[in-house]
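Re: zinc ion structure - here you go.
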Amino acid sequence: MDAKQKELNISTIKEVLRQYLQEKGFRNTPERYTILEEIYNMEHHFNVDDLYLLMMQKKYHVSKATIYNTIEIFLDAGLIRKHQFGEKTLTSSSYEKSYFDKQHDHLVIYKKDSDKEIQEIIEFCDPRIQGIKDSIEEAFGVNIDSHSLYFYGTKKD
Ligand SMILES: [Zn+2]
């Protein structure tokens, strides 16, 4: 993506956030926009600790409580999505930006003989999943808005 497109995308999501905060009557604080921009500049999945460290490195002083609270807002506003990568504690849930994303699914690879320690997360897009969705919609007379699919495994020797 070129720099100009990126800039355009950032202003689009900031506008989505601005409208959301206004509708909900939440405070329109500048750090929410800063956090949002940092998330949209990231290329991969992140958890709260990653985001907190990133903000510290950039010398933005936000508390972890603010980050948790802001993440809840972004989730509700449809700006990020939450993932179940199989981490054991709730606090290490992963997230990713979602506003411009194509639908994709995830293959979670754990380190061998570890207790669900993640080695790698691969994103994939398989058109057959769309086909399944279409036939389920047809068979049950529903519109499917979203789905959730994760594969978990380890690397073969
Ligand atoms: Zn992803």
